[in-house]
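Lab meeting, action items carried over

1. Structure of the two-component assembly. Owner: GW. Status: complete.
Input record:
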Amino acid sequence: MKEGMPNNSTASISQARKAVEQLKMEACRDRVKVSQAAADLLAYCEAHVREDPLIIPVPASENPFREKKFFCTIL
Amino acid sequence: MAADGLHENETLASLKSEAESLKGKLEEERAKLHDVEFAQLCPTLCDRLDCSLPGAFVHGILQRRILEWVAVSSSRGSSRPRDGTSISRVSCSAVHQVAERVEALGQFVMKTRRTLKGHGNKVLCMDWCKDKRRLVSSSQDGKVIVWDSFTTNKEHAVTMPCTWVMACAYAPSGCAIACGGLDNKCSVYPLTFDKNENMAAKKKSVAMHTNYLSACSFTNSDMQILTASGDGTCALWDVESGQLLQSFHGHGADVLCLDLAPSETGNTFVSGGCDKKAMVWDMRSGQCVQAFETHESDINSVRYYPSGDAFASGSDDATCRLYDLRADREVAIYSKESIIFGASSVDFSLSGRLLFAGYNDYTINVWDVLKGSRVSILFGHENRVSTLRVSPDGTAFCSGSWDHTLRVWA
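Predicted assembly:
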């Protein structure tokens, strides 16, 4: 939203009208309580943390970056 | 189209005051959902340059400037907010309250496993291929390079006709890359292993903006590209025809970053800009669905939480913040008094438990998303970290820096 002194008053009116429409739309959204939203984030995290190789490291042989393998080709 | 003239009872002043009162009502509505109590001073935002877990330690090269910061932060007395910050900075955030009962993370050993050298100037952007092995990076000197991160070999290289290639992306099929920057365009290059073919010859110009291209991303297929630009807009393009499918207006200044929602069926994306706002858009209608304005400076990077219900942002105000889309508000802030440089790029680990953030002070901080504490600091880069992405299978993440190199950490 642009503030400041507009040269063209019709442009600023249509902008202001758009802003009001946008805010009206945002104000009627359904929202969820923060504790519920936070609990859902937590639940997702706990459900997937076992599969996260940066938290529960997989054995070095399975992680291509950690294993000491030499990628050379004989020409 | 609505008439531009005034309707009855409508004046510019009345519209503006209606907007103000709606904004106030919006804040009230958001505040009503704030049912988690705030503690006045949260132990996770203390002064110590530490990792708050026993046994966790700092890796890499300890450089003199780091010791200077330790001296500064320990000489200060009680923690006080920096000038111009609001009190909410020193209070505990909602997610951390709820996460109190969660187990703390164990010890972290994350090191540079690969260093990709070859760029002649600042690395500005990078993206992983879906095969979890290849990645594309772009730099200030106009070079775009495709690497094999396992072997550190360069597989393709192309020189763009412009400098400052600020955006690059890998196509989902792995058969093409997109990049752009000061040329105000986004170009797609098909990748070919045919030695006789010149990559630049098959270049396709897809997007046209009126200012620099700051970010680009393929949608779920190779057929569409989403772009963000310094002209303040985002746009969705058809790759084959170069046609503009949808444009997204609403930011008041340059748009610096964007990220697509992770779900296959999801049709939204989030963008962040120099107007300090993060906006969530509906791709089909072009409408802004939600907007968040709590950062105090430019938002350099936005990334969705893996579940798609939240996103994180990194900003020049030296903080990273977590916004929940369903609660429609900021729910966590990741900052420390000792961190004074802006965060240039952020990404989540696979489970969303860790947030990796690259900063302009050459370091990467690893945050525990739920507890809000810093888990680790990674040193190694010799200049600003400009870009950071976790690999598609979460086994590693790659950071690119103004020191001309990329590092893969695991």
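2. GW to write a short summary for the group page. Key points so far: Chain A has two helices and no strands. The helical segments of chain A are 9-27, 34-48.
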